[in-house]
Amino acid sequence: MRHQALHELIIERMKDGWAPEQFSGRLDFEKAPTRIYKETIYRFVYSKKDMQEDLW
């Protein structure tokens, strides 16, 4: 996986109740070197591979 740390951070935040919009917006606000669109997070959450995380 290309961005393993980001992947794990998304899972952690989603389990804490963060919405994809919040996570994406926070990265943008902090001017993080790696940014991600909310739509990408939604695709990740609803993908068959990651359904086991119960993030939806």
Structural account:
The chain has helices spanning 4-15, 20-29, 38-45. The chain is 54% helix and 0% strand. It contains 3 helices and no strands. With 56 residues, the chain is mostly helical. Helix 2 (20-29) runs antiparallel to helix 3 (38-45).
Q: Give the overall form.
A: globular
Q: What percent of residues are in strands?
A: under 5%
Oligomerization state: single chain
Order of helices and strands: HHH
* Biggest sheet architecture: none
Structural class: mainly alpha
Throw out a few tags for this protein:
56 residues; mainly alpha; 3 helices; 54% helix; 0% strand
List the helices and strands and how they pair.
Blueprint (H helix, E strand, L loop, with lengths): L3 H12 L4 H10 L8 H8 L11
Helix pairs in contact: 2-3
Question: In a few lines, what is going on in this structure?
Answer:
This protein has 56 residues and is mostly helical.
